[in-house]
Structures are given as C-alpha cells and as structure tokens.
Specification:
Elements: E1 3-7, H1 12-23, E2 27-32, H2 35-49, E3 53-57, H3 63-73, E4 82-85, H4 100-128, E5 131-136, H5 146-165, E6 171-176, H6 185-188, H7 204-216, E7 221-222, H8 226-237, H9 240-254
The chain binds NADP nicotinamide-adenine-dinucleotide phosphate (NAP).
C-alpha cells in the first residue's frame, strides 16, 4: 500500500488524479481550500475503493497553508510515495489589467508552493530510495503568455532540473503539460472558451492516465495527447516573435471575456 498526496484535489485534473490513484489501491491525502468538497470526495473514494482517504484543508497561497502541507510531507512515520502538485488557477485579463496582488498570489501557488512541497517530499523519498513527484504545468509554458505561462515555464524548468539531479536515487520527477482540459479552470477565471475548437479539449481522466503512463516510463516531461505533441512540435519551428503574436491573438480570442 502506498500513499499519494494531491493538491487541488476538489476538482478537475486533481480530482481525476485522486480517482485514478484510489482506483489503483493507493491511499490518498486530498489537499485544497474547500473542506466540505474535500470531505465528500474522500468519503466517495474510501467507499468505492476501500482505500484510506484523508483530507488536509490548506490554502496554498498562504504561509500557514504551505507549512501545513510541508509538515505532512515531512512526516517520516506516514511517508508519502507520490506527490502531485496540481493546484492552480488562471486570471482574467492581460498584463496591467490584472491586479499585481493576484499575479503574486499566482506565483506563490504555482511556484513557491511547488518548490516548497517538492523540497519537503523529496528528502524523505530519497531516504527510502523510492517515490515520485508530478508537477502539473501546461502547454502555456512553451509560449509567451504573461505570468501564467511564465509560472508554468518555471515549473517545467524546475522539475526537469531536479529530475536530473535525482537520477539514480530512486526518486522520479515529471512535469505534466496538458492543453485545454474540461475542468472548472476557465469558468473560475471568468474566461469565455466559446471559441476554442472542440478538438482542442482534453478529458481530465485521460490526461491523468497518459501522465501516469509517462511517469512509469521514466519520462521527465509529459505532453499527454498526440494533438498537442504535434502542435508543440510545430511551435518549435515558428520564430519566437511570430509565436508571441499568435499566442497574444489566440489569448484574446480564447481568454478573458
Ligand atoms: N484546465 C485546463 O485547461 C488546464 C490546462 C493546462 C494546465 N492546467 C493546470 O492544471 C491544474 C489544475 O487545474 P484544473 O484545470 O483542474 O482547474 P480546476 O478545475 O479549477 O481545479 C483547481 C484545483 O486547485 C485548487 N486550488 C486553487 N487554488 C488553490 C489554493 N490557493 N490552495 C489550494 N488549492 C487551490 C482548487 O480547489 P479549491 O478551490 O477547493 O481550493 C481545485 O481543486 C492547474 O495547475 C492548471 O494551471 C489546466
């Protein structure tokens, strides 16, 4: 029996990770802000799969929230075998339209929390010579798209760098980079996604299945869908200035209302 801790486990990709990992027989620790939703989800996973599902209510944009999860990850009496840093959000508006405080909150949740939780989990995993960390970034990491894209680019660089440093220790790290996924993400950010073509949408359960397959294969970066693999391959051939223009135009079409 192993234990997985998933941040942002109330909805979307995080909830899909929790479902899949509980289905596979892992005990789960579910982390997010909404205590009631976490409790309902934990009860459902316990009843359906017979695993231990516990709840850790924490706001990862706050010092005490990050510290509480760090403490749980550092508990050698209850080791966590797989950490999924998934919690995240989008912001409505472009540079100078978004309050600076919201951008700083994003950096805290997407970067500081990921750095600190990874750093709390990995030493315990290294001592046990086994464990894994999946950090959820986005294909937005590969195109110039403001603080969101920049924060996800940090997640990609950080994860792949640490994955290399941890080579041979038994600890695997992988960054998962999905495209558009049907979750609460865009609605929460007040984004109008009416213009996004149907073929660009991914299903959260499939994203998780593909991601965990890639983790098992030892990849340090997972693009969990062939359509986005092709798109990202093509994007590498486009000059950066043009990519920036396309990204900005699509951002206006598919982004904030
Ligand atoms: N959906 C997409 O198209 C897409 C594409 C690429 C990457 N991603 C990334 O995938 C990850 C998951 O997004 P999603 O699409 O599943 O979004 P979602 O459906 O909105 O779920 C976001 C989860 O994060 C939690 N969360 C948000 N802020 C938090 C905070 N301050 N502290 C703790 N938990 C917090 C939310 O729970 P509470 O509100 O209960 O705290 C919720 O469980 C994010 O990192 C996102 O950037 C999403």
């Amino acid at each position: 029996m192993t234990t997985a801790l998933i941040t942002g486990a109330t909805a979307g990709i995080g909830a899909a990770f929790a479902r899949r990992l509980a289905h596979d027989g892992h005990d789960v620790v579910l982390v997010a802000r909404s205590a009631e939703r976490l409790r309902e989800h934990a009860t459902e996973l316990h009843d359906r799969h017979g695993v231990e599902a516990s709840v850790l209510t924490a706001d990862l944009s706050r010092e005490e929230g990050i510290a509480a999860v760090e403490e749980r990850l550092g508990d050698r009496a209850r080791p966590v075998d797989l950490l999924v840093n998934n919690a995240g959000f989008g912001l409505q508006g472009r540079y100078l339209e978004v309050p600076l405080a919201d951008e700083l909150t994003m950096l805290r949740v997407h970067c500081e929390a990921v750095l600190r939780l990874t750093t709390a989990a990995v030493p315990v995993m290294r001592e046990r010579r086994r464990g894994g960390v999946v950090n959820v970034a986005s294909v937005a990491a590969f195109v110039p798209r403001g603080t969101y894209g920049a924060s996800k680019a940090w997640v990609v660089q950080f994860t792949q760098g640490v994955a290399r440093d941890m080579g041979g220790t038994g600890v695997r790290l992988m960054v998962l980079c999905p495209g558009f996924v049907r979750t609460e993400f865009h609605q929460r950010a007040g984004m109008d996604t009416g213009g996004v073509p149907g073929w660009m949408w991914l299903d959260a359960d499939r994203v998780v299945d593909a991601g965990l397959r890639d983790l098992a294969r030892g990849k340090s970066l997972s693009l969990p869908d062939p359509r986005y693999k092709a798109l990202m391959g093509a994007a590498k051939l486009v000059p950066r200035g043009m990519l920036s223009r396309v990204s900005s135009t699509t951002g206006r079409r598919f982004g904030p209302k």
